[in-house]
Write a structure and sequence with these properties.
Keywords: Membrane, Transmembrane, Transmembrane helix. Helices cover 75% and strands 0% of the residues. The protein has twelve helices and no strands. The radius of gyration is 25 Å and the shape is globular.
Length: 304
């Protein structure tokens, strides 16, 4: 009789679905399972940490300086700095969300949301890049409402065309531009994209080291910014070219450049273009730049 009961219990257990035996464990530790999937799965722990931590720390830093910065912006006369600061806040939130939701890239159900978030995040950062390039190329005339309008108009047109082309790839042809785990036709677009940026940064980089350097702002921080962005985009171009030919090293190197870009670009922009403005008490940013250029002798030719 006892053997019969034992056999009946065993038959009941055998008929249970596989998930039932682990149901209690998952129910008890569901929060830990979700956290593990968010941090470890898809790209791995270190990739996610290197993406999330710098983005979060920069937003925290902006928040800690918000009261002082808002006061300086509201009492300042630089339309360029005011607009740049506002866009920086917006893009920083997008970048933090993008960095925190890396697990969406590996979730088929989130593919559309991941593409939209990636498109807006990268376009926002590209808008800042193009705006600052236009700002530098305007040289000594890069101030005032007219300069702001012209600079942002150029940026809006360039980024609008870029978003339109990427939208055709993403939603027209179904090519996952932001899924670097696949060696598909997305690399052709990234090669062109990085080639253009590398060419522009390379042009400015060599202008600073040529007889045309007086046409650009002479602040050393600007030259450092251009040098860093030129090296980063040149490396990304090489990585895309290798990945387009099926080299696994190219995909790995491109991932490194993506992590570096999203981790350091916004802080680099802040340090280069905004930090001095918020630290100056008596002089505005454009007056500081003009004084440094005058001391460096960049206007001596005007008196000869």
């Amino acid at each position: 009789m006892i053997d019969g009961k034992m056999r009946s219990v065993e038959s009941i257990v055998a008929e249970l679905p596989p998930s039932s035996s682990a149901g209690a464990v998952v129910g008890a530790g569901g929060g830990g399972s979700w956290l593990y999937g968010w941090l470890v799965e898809c790209h791995g722990l270190w990739h996610n940490v290197l993406m999330i931590v710098p983005s979060a720390l920069f937003v925290v830093y902006l928040a800690s300086q918000a009261k002082r910065s808002f006061w300086k912006v509201s009492n300042g006369r630089s339309h360029v700095v005011t607009a740049l600061y506002a866009i920086l806040w917006l893009v920083s939130f997008f970048n933090l969300a993008w960095s925190s939701l890396q697990a969406w890239e590996c979730a088929p159900a989130k593919q559309f949301l991941w593409s939209v978030l990636s498109l807006f995040t990268t376009s926002g950062m590209l808008f800042l890049e193009v705006s600052l390039i236009a700002f530098l190329l305007r040289g000594n005339h890069a101030s005032g409402r007219e300069a702001l309008t012209q600079t942002f108009l150029i940026s809006a047109v360039a980024v609008g065309l870029d978003m339109f082309l990427k939208g055709i790839y993403l939603f027209g042809f179904g090519i996952q531009l932001f899924d670097v785990s696949t060696n598909g036709s997305q690399w052709a677009l990234w090669v062109v994209h990085k080639l253009l940026l590398t060419g522009v940064y390379g042009l400015i980089f060599f202008m600073y080291r040529s007889r045309w350097r007086e046409k650009l702002p002479a602040r050393p921080a600007f030259q450092n910014y251009i040098s860093i962005m030129f090296c980063l985009n040149a490396t990304a171009l090489l990585a895309c070219a290798l990945a387009a030919h099926g080299a696994g090293f190219g995909s790995w190197l491109y991932n490194i450049t993506v992590i570096s870009y999203h981790a350091i670009y916004l802080p680099l922009l802040y340090v280069t273009f905004l930090a001095d403005f918020f630290q100056e008490d008596d002089l505005h940013l454009e007056n500081v730049y003009y004084s440094e250029m005058k001391d460096a002798g960049f206007f001596d030719a005007d008196w000869e």
